Amino acid sequence: xxxxxxxxxxxxxxxxxxxxxxxxxxxxxxxxxxxxxxxxxxxxxxxxxxxxxxxxxxxxxxxxxxxxxxxxxxxxxxxxxxxxxxxxxxxxxxxxxxxxxxxxxxxxxxxxxxxxxxxxxxxxxxxxxxxxxxxxxxxxxxxxxxxxxxxxxxxxxxxxxxxxxxxxxxxxxxxxxxxxxxxxxxxxxxxxxxxxxxxxxxxxxxxxxxxxxxxxx
Length: 217
Fold this sequence. Notes:
The chain has helices at residues 52-56, 66-74, 156-166, 181-192; strands spanning 3-6, 12-16, 19-23, 39-41, 62-64, 82-84, 90-93, 96-104, 116-122, 126-128, 144-148, 170-174, 199-200, 208-209. The chain starts with a strand and ends in an 8-residue tail after the last strand. 41% of the residues are buried. It has a 7-stranded mixed β-sheet with strand order 6-5-4-3-2-1-14, covered by helices on one side. The chain has a single domain, classed as Ribonuclease Z/Hydroxyacylglutathione hydrolase-like (Metallo-beta-lactamase, Chain A). By secondary structure, the protein is an alpha/beta fold.
C-alpha cells in the first residue's frame, strides 16, 4: 500500500513501509510535506517546483537535473546530499524504484530558451511529469498520473490528449496554484467530463489517500 498526499501546486508525497518520498516541494506548497521526508525528487529548478530554502533545511538526499544540483550546491546544501540525474536512469530513493524520463520542459513561448525537466516514474506505477507531457515508456502501465492542469505553458486540449495517451487508472490534478476556487471547479467539471474510463480524482491538500485501493491487481 502506498499513501499519497498533495501539498499544494506540484508537491506530492508517497509513503510506504514508513518511508516518505517527496516530489517538487516548491514555494507555492506547504513545507509540512517535508516533515519526516526520506528522499526528495525535483523535476526542474523553477521555484514553484523547488523551494531551495525549505529543501536546504532538511537532511534528506535530493535528486534533480544538473541545474537543480548546481543551484542547491550554490545555496549551501551539502554535496553528499545532492544527486544529479539525466533521463534514462534507474535508482532507489526512500525504498521506491525511480526511473527518470523526458528531459525537456514544455515550451512556454518560442522567444524563451528551452529548459530541462526530468519526469519521474515511481515503482513503475506513478508518473509525475513536472512541467511536461512526458509519455509513459513503451510497455509500462501507468496506474496513477499526477496531471498538470493549469500553467502558462499549458493548452487544455493537450491535457486531455495527454491523459488519453497515458491512459492511467487514476489522474490526480496538480500544478494549479494560479487558479481561483472557481477556476478549480471549472477545471474539475470540464476535465472530469472528458476522462472516459479514467478516474479523475481531486485530492485535498494534506489528505492521505491510496489512489489505487482495491483496484490494485
